[in-house]
Structure formats: C-alpha cells, structure tokens
C-alpha cells in the first residue's frame, strides 16, 4: 500500500485539487470541454470530457465508470490515431464490455472464491469470474456514475472524479470515499492519481483498464509490439488465474521481458503451463525498484507508427494482459471487430488475491489512513 508521504506528491496534489474548476489555457490548446454523453436507462445524465494539450494529444473520458473512451496521440509523422479500444457511444458501454478504458475498484483483479477474512470476519463477494470475484464485483467502479469536476493547472488539463462506495456495497466493508484524477500534460503524459479513505478496514486495489493498440484501435493484433517490463519476477497462477503465492524469476521463461525488450508475440505460443493457464499473457509482474517512488514499470514500442508508451507507477505490481479473451464478437468503434490480441492492458496494481496472501504487500486500508497511488502513461515516438 502506498500512502502519501512524499512532500512532492503532496504539493502536486494540493495544486491539482485546489485549482479545480473549468478553465482553458491562454493559448486555447490545453483545456477541458464538457458535453453530454447520453443518459442511463433510469434517466441519469452522463457527460464526456475532452482533455487536450499543446501537442495535439486528446483524451476523452466519461464520468460513467471513469471510462477513457479514446486516446488520440501522434505517430512519428505527427498523424493522430486513437490507440484505445472502446465504443462510439454510451450504449456500447452499457450493453457489454470487458472493462474497456474503465476505472477498476474496489478491488482490481481476482479474489479467490469471492472470499476473504478481515479482523475476524469473513466476507463474501459475488463470483463473477468462474469461482472468483473479479474487478470489484457485479457493479464495480467501472459501472457507476462518478461526480466529475474539470480543472486546469500548471501540470495540464484534467478531471477529478469522486465516488463514495457504501458500506457493504458488493460485499466490501466500510464507506470508501474515492477520488481519481486524470491529468493530461503538455509532455503527452496521462497522469492518474487515486486516493481513498474509509471508515472500516477494507481491501482497496484501484487500477485503470485501458486496452491499448499503439498502431491504432482496430488495426490488427499487438503481437509485433516490443515490450520491456521492469520486473525480474512474476506471481505464477493456478488454472483459475489465482496466484499460488510463489514469486518466480522470469529468467529462462517466456515471461522474461526484463532481460531484453521482446515482441509480445515472440513466445506467446510457447509450451509453458503459465501461458496455457492465461491463454497467453495474463500475469501480475512484480516490479523491481524501490517500491515507494514512481518507477518505470513498462515500455512498449510499436515499430510501424514509432509510438512508444511508458508506464510509471508507485504500485508494486503490473498485470500484463495480452487481450486473450477478445474473440472478434465485440464490434467496437467504427464497427471494428476486436479479435484476439488486438490490444494489451498494463494494469498497475497490488498483486491479485492479496487479501488471501498475508505475505503479499497489504491492500488493507484502515480508518485514518489515506490511500494514494499514482500511475503515468507517457506517450512519445521514436
Ligand atoms: C484480467 C483478465 C481479464 C480482463 C478482463 C484483466 O485484468 O487479468 O483475465 O480477462 O481483465 O476482465
């Protein structure tokens, strides 16, 4: 668990939240625009916010699930493409989605058998993934309407999303006040700050579930993307994708993206039990580094566009998911069929099933503590 500790972080956050309110920069290039994105079945209005910066990069996000609808970024020739899978309209997200672009909470990834014990009490969650609970349950943070406030400050343009998850919601204890902010900087960084406080001890593991294809959404699979992970170990899983508890060195396995940058597809068909269990890559990597400051967790390069994505995080883990469960049945933006491995996710997180693994870094947030976690997705070209 990463709590606010660094003076730097405090200063940045203070400026982020103190100056919230609608604004656009004097140049008119960096700013936030709010529009309607439709209504839910019960009539609740939902908005979409367009964040722009001086480089022409654009993030569109809705307060429904905090979903990032699109990420338009330049390639090496300056052409903009949308590198995030998703739908053209709200209807698509309401129908069915494998968490495209969404905020995930209260607990990202799996909790074995939908059960955990805390302070002598057993808690039961919905089993919405085989025998397990995944991504916060049936109505996780990806399916609720967040309150949104646009802001502009010296870091860039953004929105602050707030949501209070009630005591007992989806089976979790405690009223959890959650705040997530998205900032788009002029350095083509998408900064995500997650904060939470609770009135009862509860597991918390917040993440973001954007499906990236650096060549552009719908343009094919991601197997030729070159990946480097700053992780010399991973948490092997059983056939239900629950960590066994082991922290296994990646060296000598097809999960070694540490020794050298390697194409995602180079070894994805290798005869290795962990790849069979995941139907490809669907593993939590144990990040190397100090474990408190932001570390470079991952770097991905797409050779034809030259686009590069770097991921920095304060979290100890990273779920690398190679879009194995996409099967072409979802028709996304512009009618694009999203087939297997048409995208990858890099979800910064604590390790899956931590509430049932006392040896893993704790995910328990207690009253009086403040949860803070920061992840930066930085785009560039090479
Ligand atoms: C999980 C995958 C899952 C995907 C969509 C990822 O975080 O690791 O197993 O299919 O989310 O639910």
Give the overall shape, derived from the CA principal axes: globular
Widest sheet: strand order?
11-12-13-14-27-23-22-17-20
**β-sheet strand percentage:** 35-45%
Helicity, as a percent range:
under 10%
**Largest sheet data:** 9 strands, antiparallel
On the 0-100 scale, what is the average pLDDT? 93
Order of helices and strands: HEEEEEHEEEEEEEEEEEEEEEHEEEEEEE
What's the number of extended β-strand segments? 27
Low-pLDDT parts are 1-28
Radius of gyration: 19 Å
Amino-to-carboxy terminus distance: 34 Å
Which descriptors apply to this entry?
disordered N terminus, five-stranded antiparallel sheet, mainly beta, binds beta-D-glucopyranose, nine-stranded antiparallel sheet, 382 residues
Structural overview:
- This protein has 382 residues and is mainly β.
- Helices cover 6% and strands 36% of the residues.
- The chain is built from 3 helices and 27 strands.
- The protein has helices spanning 7-18, 90-95, 273-278; strands at 31-39, 45-52, 58-62, 68-74, 80-82, 103-104, 110-111, 115-118, 121-124, 133-134, 147-153, 156-165, 176-184, 189-198, 202-203, 207-208, 226-229, 233-235, 248-249, 262-263, 282-286, 295-301, 307-313, 317-321, 345-349, 364-365, 371-381.
- A 9-stranded antiparallel beta sheet has the order 11-12-13-14-27-23-22-17-20. Strands 1-2-3-4-5 form a 5-stranded antiparallel beta sheet, with no helix packed on it. A 5-stranded antiparallel beta sheet has the order 19-18-21-24-25, with no helix packed on it.
- The longest helix is centred in the N-terminal third of the chain and has 12 residues, at 7-18.
- It is globular.
- Residues 98-99, 109, 134, 241, 282, 319, 321, 325, 347 line the site of beta-D-glucopyranose (BGC).
- Beta-D-glucopyranose binds at residues 98-99, 109, 134, 241, 282, 319, 321, 325, 347.
